[in-house]
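Reopening this one. Same input as before:
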Amino acid sequence: SYTVHVMSERVGGLKVGAPVALSGVPVGNVTAIDLTPDRRAVDISVRILRKYSIHGDARFGIEQSGFLGDEFVSIVALSNAAPVLQDGGVVTHGGRVLGVTAWAPE
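Same output, byte for byte:
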């Protein structure tokens, strides 16, 4: 497995251990949620199973499972034009947790 750091303004009800899904397929889980050293953002560490390659242009979001369900990290592959994320890679999430879905801006 490898770790990717998702930077966000907030995490809502996301918890350590929450699933990570790529296009709805479980590919990993949240391993840590911490403030960045400057305390201006949240660093969500996610562990991805090595057999799943995530490109840097994928959209990362925080979604809710069902109407009142637990939150999870959702990844949607886009054009796959960016390089594959490596262990320790950093991506940015838009940070807005609104309703059921919050997507990173393009």
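So the earlier flakiness isn't reproducible anymore. For the record, The longest strand covers residues 25-35.
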